[in-house]
């Protein structure tokens, strides 16, 4: 495949919690994608992308990667002179992994050793996560490496803790009334400032305590019940998680969704949660009755990503 596509990703569960060793669950999202391509750089988009990649290549020169994960940077620089750019429709600042897909594409094309997603061991996943964290730090200051890993693997990934990740199977979709969906807040979110707010909150003992004792417990229970397809306890914990976020993550919730978030909690028709760091971009919705939720959320752009 000359131009492999790299899909966006969605972090279903684990936002902020994974910083504090909670579990996380992520899946690829094929609605958005990106691929490395060559052109004569006629358009502004292509020229800007090529220029950004040149700056990124300078950063890559400064890294000391282990031999088995080394990149062929001479070939990358040659390709950049010949018009390489990243053709992507993944929106930036929406929490769906725009930089993750780029990092995955660069690694797939320029890694000296080639890997097959199906045969990568759990130990290699751990190594790749660390390497991808270094490669993506250019874009975010620091990176867990999770986003590029999901984009690279193109498989659902269970984040077991800060160090360990594993491939996982999601329950098969079926055409029921239940759905997980994205809501477009209409605002762009910036990861850096949101993460800064989180770390400021972590300085207070009360917040640290409730994060560990409540948020992480609800978050991990949601993942466990969802993977087992136990939908009643899943929604019970999801409601608790949504309410906790409404009380404690208010600065991360886009203002346009404050009242919709509360309406869901008041009516139990649907529950909302952050998708990534928040502040804008997408918000995740969960409901047992999508037609009813859709009616209540009129005026917002929505996209169903999973049916049950």
From TrEMBL:
Gene3D superfamilies: 3.30.230.10. GO terms for molecular function: ATP binding; mevalonate kinase activity. Pathway: Isoprenoid biosynthesis; isopentenyl diphosphate biosynthesis via mevalonate pathway; isopentenyl diphosphate from (R)-mevalonate: step 1/3. Keywords: ATP-binding, Cytoplasm, Kinase, Lipid biosynthesis, Lipid metabolism, Magnesium, Nucleotide-binding, Transferase. GO terms for biological process: isopentenyl diphosphate biosynthetic process, mevalonate pathway. Residues 84-153 form the GHMP kinase N-terminal domain. It comes from the Bacteria. Pfam families: GHMP_kinases_N (PF00288). This is Mevalonate kinase. It comes from Planobacterium oryzisoli.
